Model the fold of this input.
Amino acid sequence: MTNHKSIKIGQNFYCYIWAGKGNNCNASLIHHALRGEQSDILIDPGHISNEWGENCFDSLMQTMAGDGFKVENVGMVICTHCHPDHFEAAEPVVKRSNAQVALSREEYEFYNNEGNRFYTAFGSKAPQIEPSFYLEEGDLKLDETNKLDIKVLFTPGHTPGSISLYLEELKLLISGDVVFAGSVGRTDFPGGDASLLRESIDRLSQLDVEYLIPGHSTQAGSIISNKNQVSHNFNLVKTII
Ligand SMILES: [Zn+2]
Done:
């Protein structure tokens, strides 16, 4: 019995929706995204354990195992942002797999300055890892054989360096803590900026999206599928920011 629910979209995309009592993020995995044996990309591995004492990372590994995936086969971890509920488990993933870690430069600098304080305030320990490279706006260049089109969008506001990912082939948007079903990311944490968040949401709302994968589930739901529902959601959240 795990606290994640696995949802497969298309051939190689898996979303791991958090369904526990306490806080944790939704994780995603793109299978066969990289060359070699460690071909999987894991996005936002989440908490190691949360305020309810739930073993979030164990749950993620077990749920991944149900789909035939192992953390040891992850070649890259991408973090939408550095909050503990998205980034904390990046450390055990890297320990087991030696995977590359990618996030935006702005986010890493913010994390370096504010990270420890923020993690301590939430009763956890900041991961001791450094990015292998920085994510930049535009196409994510993996290697020349990569057929996946992963676009990185710089979408600050919830944090100074938050990114979103757009998978063009699936018309799938991983929005981190920028936008949720019926809601938007908080801007009252250090580094939050409501007007930047508004601009970021505006940008994302112009994409052609069939699947919106938000960083957390809300009472209104988790994944939003269908273009009409997605644009309805953007229209709705624009009225509350
Ligand atoms: Zn966050």
Residues 104 and 136 are 6 Å apart (CA to CA). DSSP finds six helices and 15 strands in the chain.
